[in-house]
Design a protein that fits this description.
Helices cover about 70% and strands about 5% of the residues. By secondary structure, it is mainly alpha-helical.
């Protein structure tokens, strides 16, 4: 999939993904020059991780958008929804970047009435930007001309469709707590490289990560099944979706019990 094709299929999401990717350059510079630390890691690590995650998210949506009916993609409601999602993403990154510049927390920060209101607003923005997966799942499901095999199409629909509810469960629970750690040292210092997941206690970010990546991993599993085991049935995608949901909920329950994810504590 080429960049011009992505831009033709989803110009707004592709343009925003490129903007976020370019905006990582000054943040990388700040990361190198600013040695301040918050919760055990450089203050600019979190904005970088969110920028990268949102670039992947937007490019995935742009890639899958070609499977929605062309007429649907040109409807006013579709365009307005994409614009609202774009502004929600911009608001999220402005807040996360601003919090890094101030050396304070962007999430779970209710130290003042104003910050509590901002935190609540950012939660609503996060829900809004995730609704893109549901909208796209419905559009692809209703399109009889995707050219996909039944297995792969069902995998796409289930993967996109499960992203929002799984994220609401995991991220929604986190938002009600004072942080994403359950037991352990309560710092990202010494966490799993790149991800930062706790090695000595529960970390709700694990389940949240896998919930948000259902949109990529379930379709990938369906494609592998279709490639090697056949592609004429929808039921393998449903089984994969159920197994994946169970896995996410297992990591969620494990974190709530104060246990680190799998082999993380040994790494």
């Amino acid at each position: 999939m080429t960049l011009p094709r992505l831009s033709a299929d989803s110009p707004r999401f592709t343009s925003l993904a490129l903007f976020l990717a370019i905006s990582m350059l000054p943040v990388l510079g700040a990361h190198a020059l600013d040695q301040r630390v918050f919760q055990g890691i450089n203050v600019w690590t979190k904005p970088l991780k969110f920028q990268l995650a949102l670039v992947v998210y937007l490019l995935t949506l742009a890639w899958f958008a070609r499977l929605a009916p062309v007429a649907t993609r040109h409807q006013g409601r579709w365009i307005m929804h994409e614009q609202a999602i774009g502004w929600a993403i911009v608001a999220e990154m402005v807040w996360i970047g601003g919090a890094a510049a101030w050396g304070t927390a962007s999430h779970f920060n209710q130290s003042t009435p104003l910050l509590a209101v901002v935190y609540g607003f950012m939660g609503l923005a996060a829900i809004l930007l995730t609704t893109a997966t549901t909208t796209l799942a419905v559009a692809i499901d209703r399109n009889p001309d995707t050219g996909l095999s039944p297995t792969v199409k069902a995998g796409l629909v289930w993967g996109l469709g499960l992203t929002l509810p799984l994220t609401l469960v995991t991220a929604g629970t986190m938002s009600l707590l004072s942080g994403h750690w359950v037991g352990g040292t309560g710092t990202d210092a010494g966490g799993l490289p790149l991800m930062g997941w706790s090695r000595d206690g529960g970390d709700l970010r694990v389940a949240h990560f896998f919930a948000t990546h259902a949109m990529q991993l379930i379709p990938l599993a369906a494609w592998v099944w279709a490639r090697f085991l056949g592609h004429r049935k929808r039921w393998p995608a449903l089984v994969m979706a159920l197994m994946y949901s169970g896995f996410v909920l297992w990591t969620f329950a494990q974190a709530l019990r104060g246990l680190p994810f799998g082999l993380v504590s040994m790494m």
